[in-house]
Amino acid sequence: MNILHIEDYDEEKGENYATLLRSAIKGHNYTNVETLSDLEREDVKKYDVFIIDGQFPKDENSKPEVGMCKLAVEFLMSCGVKKSQMIIWSNSTRTHQFAAENNIIYFSKKEMKIEDYKEKGVNPKFLAKKAGQYCIAK
Questions:
Q1: pTM
Q2: What's the CA gap between 138 and 121, in Å, rounded?
């Protein structure tokens, strides 16, 4: 299986989810891109699955933004990628809501609480399951 993971290195937290995911999915062809611009340069037709972070930069000179996930989904769909090929892996409650409303599978990287959603004004019915429960991450 060919997997494209859209995930930037989190300098603020020192977390590298790309390295974690690469080690968890041995036996598959794995590619990581860090920005929307990187994604747009990829030949997306050669990938079977797309794992999309909720926040990443538009380009190498930008800071991560929540809106990039939606733009990545729109770009992938314009290239003929089906929603069933996408997984959104994010701690952003608004991204979880976007994924649910658009019938895209989504998971969180950490354990989420109902309060996390209420604080952001997002209905807790969009509560994401932690990906670790499904052997994607620890």
A1: 0.84
A2: 28
- Tokens at 102, concatenated: 């658009």
- 137 pLDDT band (50/70/90 cuts)? very low
Judge residue 40's burial from the number of C-beta atoms within 10 Å of its C-beta, 0-12 exposed, 13-18 middle, 19 or more buried: middle
Q: What is the DSSP letter of 121?
A: T
The per-residue pLDDT for 10 is: 62
pLDDT tens per residue, range 98-118: 999 999 999 888 888 888 888
Q: What ranges in 9-138 are assigned the alpha helix state H?
A: 17-24, 36-41, 67-78, 93-101, 114-119
Q: What is the token pair recorded at 46?
A: 């050669």
Cα(124)–Cα(108) distance, integer angstroms: 13
Q: Is the CB of residue 105 less than 8 Å from the CB of residue 86?
A: yes
